[in-house]
Specification:
Distance between the termini: 20 Å
Helix content: under 10%
Strand content: 25-35%
Number of helices: 1
CATH architecture: Sandwich
Number of domains: 1
Order of helices and strands: HEEEEEEEEEEEE
Shape: globular
CATH superfamily: Immunoglobulins
CATH topology: Immunoglobulin-like
Number of strands: 12
């Protein structure tokens, strides 16, 4: 899972070069798991590359609050997300205590993802970001 977080971070850094990229100013929504708000989850939109445009733009990220609400930003000064089709990754493996204790010689806490891989590592989620933005980028996740 750590490699997924690193890869998504690299997408953010590498994907910032094209001047033809359109960013919708506001993209937000709600994430639920089995009908209940999912708090403290990272939501990442990765613009889909096409044969005409391999550099589809920067990723956008947001963090859900206790009501499961999130708002995306492509960087600290730019809210929103790249317009068009995006793959969506949702994970609860963010900033968990003890995750980085390995370098300090301390115990390594076992990280446990709260949601199925089909929503993160093996995501099946997509969302088409409209040019005018949206407040309805909602995801109703199911877990056995």
């Amino acid at each position: 899972m750590r490699s997924l977080v690193v890869a998504l971070t690299l997408f953010t850094v590498v994907g910032c070069g094209s001047s033809d990229i359109q960013v919708a100013k506001r993209v937000s929504g709600v994430v639920t798991l089995n009908g209940k708000p999912l708090a403290n989850a990272s939501v990442t939109f990765v613009p889909a590359a096409t044969s005409d445009n391999q550099n589809a733009g920067p990723t956008a990220q947001g963090l859900t609050n206790v009501q499961g609400k999130y708002e995306l930003a492509v960087d600290p000064s730019t809210t929103g997300a790249v317009v068009g089709q995006c793959r969506v990754y949702i994970t609860t493996l963010i900033g968990q205590p003890g995750a980085d204790d390995r370098d300090a010689g301390g115990p390594v806490a076992k990280m446990q993802e709260l949601i199925p891989a089909r929503y993160n590592m093996n995501t099946q989620l997509t969302f088409n970001v409209p040019a005018e933005g949206t407040e309805s980028a909602n995801f109703e996740l199911k877990s056995p």
